[in-house]
Amino acid sequence: MCHGSAVPSSTRSTRSRRPAGTRPASRSRRPAGRSGSAAPLGVLVSGGARRRRRLGWLWLLLVVAVAIGAGLPAWQQHQDSARFPVTTADLDRAEQELDGLEVKGRAPRTGYSRDEFGAAWADVDHNGCDTRNDVLARDLTDLTFKEDTQDCVVLTGTLDDPYGGETIDFERGPDSAAVQIDHVVALSDAWQKGAQQWDADTRKEFANDPANLLAVDGGINQSKGDGDAATWLPPSTGFRCAYVVQQIRVKAAYGLWVTEAEADAMDRQLGTCVTVD
Fold this sequence. Notes:
Layout lengths: L46 H35 L4 E2 H13 L30 H9 L1 E5 L8 E7 L6 E5 L7 E5 L3 H5 L8 H8 L5 E5 H7 L15 H15 L5 H11 L4 E2 L1
Parallel strand pairs: 1-7
Antiparallel strand pairs: 2-3, 3-4, 5-6
Helix pairs in contact: 2-7, 2-8
């Protein structure tokens, strides 16, 4: 888990943000349709006028269809989010922590390499299992383990992938990469937003922190790269709220900053969350 001791003690600047839970007031709009009044009842309408009126109705139908279509993604995302609800307390905490994150530009990637975060999948909790197998054992179901490993080496299991929504059968061997362990806050992103100032032990702890790790579809993980919330979100819209809440939690715990575009993207996703008490 993330530890408060990893947060640098430097003073952070914050930006002003709307109060949690508020939304912009809706703007008044003119009724869609053509300007001008219709011909009075009983008046004979010429063929040209009838054609113009018919064209006006077609435009009205088109406007309504576009308006309805534009609203569907947000509605659908809200409905999908019900599959991954967050608690009201978690959402409130995420909103407060987001408001407290320092906002500034991304630093250069100069000097970054995976090695800066220590050996991959170290046994930082000293339970005898490496971090990758710890996360596989946590996130997969129907597990089998390699014999004589104290249930440390996962051989097979089933992943209900949160990023893509598919069910993936994992089998250790040539196709192991079908399931990968994602750093929710990517290591390169962390490097460019504060981690290059950390000592080696803190970077190693960050790279192996279970709170920043998820077993996911390997192909989708590759497409993410080192994207932040402004440039990449899970294809499964229903998981985006929980994903962003997790990113905020990790960044707040480790004192990482966010860009303006990233903070705005996070704020938008928090507005789609479905909560449970």
